[in-house]
Amino acid sequence: DADVTQTPRNRITKTGKRIMLECSQTKGHDRMYWYRQDPGLGLRLIYYSFDVKDINKGEISDGYSVSRQAQAKFSLSLESAIPNQTALYFCATSGGKGNQPQHFGDGTRLSIL
Amino acid sequence: GQQVMQIPQYQHVQEGEDFTTYCNSSTTLSNIQWYKQRPGGHPVFLIQLVKSGEVKKQKRLTFQFGEAKKNSSLHITATQTTDVGTYFCALRAGGFKTIFGAGTRLFVKA
Lengths: 113, 110
Prior knowledge:
The structure holds 2 protein chains of 2 kinds.
Chain A: E1 4-7, E2 10-13, E3 19-25, E4 31-38, E5 42-51, E6 54-57, E7 65-70, E8 73-78, E9 87-94, E10 103-104, E11 108-112
Parallel strand pairs in A: 2-11
Antiparallel strand pairs in A: 1-3, 3-8, 4-5, 4-9, 5-6, 7-8, 9-10, 9-11
Chain B: E1 4-7, E2 10-14, E3 19-25, E4 32-37, E5 43-49, E6 55-58, E7 61-65, E8 71-76, E9 85-92, E10 98-100, E11 104-109
Parallel strand pairs in B: 2-11
Antiparallel strand pairs in B: 1-3, 3-8, 4-5, 4-9, 6-7, 7-8, 9-10, 9-11
């Protein structure tokens, strides 16, 4: 979905490095999410934000932090990357009230050596 | 906490055969969503079910929501190679979070 853009698309880095994954959207949605996808485990929620002033932990927030710089921007940071954080990371947005469908970016494939 | 189980984990079918994936929740659901992820792609929303016993169709895809609103299924009639991918159910947890099932990966042999 070109309306949700993730950068970078791929990243290889070393253990202990700080990494930031960025997400921007042009859909005008208030709600933004970060997920991690591992084979056989589906999508697991890391953090979510319902507006610029609202940040919430998901299922697996340890080792991660987020920043909601504006309605359109939501970044995910790994302060000190470790190999078991190697995964595919997705940003998603949703709008309106209730349980609206989520719109995903193309993902960032992150490898930590 | 709320849990969702999706089965099977994998399914191999011959093109033209039918396919079904099931999603079961430990609690009663307000609604359920289904997504499809093509290989190398991102999840794409397919449909949302809200009412008890609801059945919705999209061409060869039939979605059902159980009477007790604790389970749901996605059935594909006469699979095609374009159906390959992983199908996820997703349900609303507390605080407006969405929990995704582990997904069923469909392989279609031509």
